[in-house]
Specification:
This protein is of the alpha/beta class. The chain is built from 11 helices and 11 strands. It has helices spanning 44-50, 77-90, 103-114, 136-140, 142-151, 159-167, 177-187, 202-210, 237-248, 264-267, 269-280, and strands at 6-11, 17-22, 29-33, 55-60, 96-101, 119-125, 155-156, 188-190, 196-198, 227-231, 252-256. The strands form 2 sheets. An 8-stranded mixed β-sheet has the order 1-2-4-3-5-6-10-11, with helices on both faces. A 3-stranded antiparallel β-sheet has the order 7-9-8.
């Protein structure tokens, strides 16, 4: 079954129009926030597994997916938090559950720092929250990732060509094929000649990576919301720091999804959905 969420284009700060995908499920509202370079629709399969229990809404942050923004818009992560809060206000939500992946998890924490009263509980998969100090640059890998993003191939002859390239090599060779299809189908826009181009261009993705040092780690002790920090079996920075984030949060706990990587929401959507539901009950 394919998801058919309703699309809402919502004014945010600095002239940005953020996009929300409303899956119209029953029950309390859960807002899903994506990782750098992705878009809200890669949560489709997680939301489909949850919509009998929750109303699910996913976001396309500024510079990603179908969002719109003026040229030169800052990619500071505080802007992503503003996008999230704009969606909350648009739907008149007073209590929501937050689900975030990587940069999306950090954006939720930044929003929670500003308006903690709107969040019921959080499930955050390897949020990028880096302790300041001599290891900050090493853990963030922001410059390395930015360099790779600027070299990323952006154009393909078709969605199918893009899919076949991604499925044949890491990191996407290990993800669920249907989740990858969703990522590709909604992550590329058509050119007039029928070819396709990434909606989140390499330069924008690079700027997001370069803004990954948010000084949020030192503020975690002020965020007193029930929060499940989830980590993978990766041996890279986000997985290493995840347990420490949970320790810093007054009401935080850590859970390991063994056998998965930093791309877990696309590797095993059903298992991820079950983990989210379990943490919110």
């Amino acid at each position: 079954m394919k998801a058919k969420p309703l699309l809402a284009k919502i004014p945010s700060a600095t002239g940005v129009k953020v996009v929300a995908h409303d899956y119209e499920g029953d029950g309390p509202t859960v807002i899903f926030c994506h990782a750098t370079g992705f878009h809200g629709r890669y949560w489709d399969h997680v939301c489909l597994a949850m919509k009998s229990i929750y109303r699910c809404i996913s976001i396309d942050f500024r510079g990603h997916g179908d969002s719109e923004m003026p040229e030169g818009t800052s990619m500071r992560w505080s802007g992503m938090a503003e996008d999230l809060l704009a969606v909350v206000d648009h739907f008149n939500l007073d209590k929501v559950f937050g689900v975030g992946h990587s940069m999306g998890g950090s954006s939720i924490l930044l929003a929670a720092k500003e308006r903690p009263q709107i969040f019921e509980a959080l499930w955050l998969f390897e949020p990028i929250v880096i302790p300041m100090g001599p290891f900050s640059e090493k853990l963030s890998r922001g410059n390395d990732l930015a360099s790779s993003a600027r070299k990323r191939r952006e154009c393909f002859a078709s969605h199918e060509e893009a899919f076949q390239r991604y499925v044949s090599r890491p990191p996407f060779s290990t993800v669920d094929p249907e989740a990858l299809r969703t990522y590709v189908d909604y992550g590329f826009a058509y050119h007039e000649d029928g070819s396709v181009v990434l909606k989140c261009r390499g330069e924008i993705e690079a700027q997001v990576f370069e803004n990954s040092a948010t000084e949020l780690f030192e503020s975690l002790s002020s965020i007193d919301i029930a929060t499940t920090i989830v980590g993978s079996s990766d041996t890279d920075g986000p997985a290493i720091i995840a347990p420490h984030i949970a320790e810093e949060l007054p009401n935080g706990s850590f859970k390991l999804l063994s056998g998965l990587t930093h791309f877990a929401p696309m590797e095993d959507p059903v298992r991820v959905a079950e983990s989210i539901i379990d943490s919110f009950n």
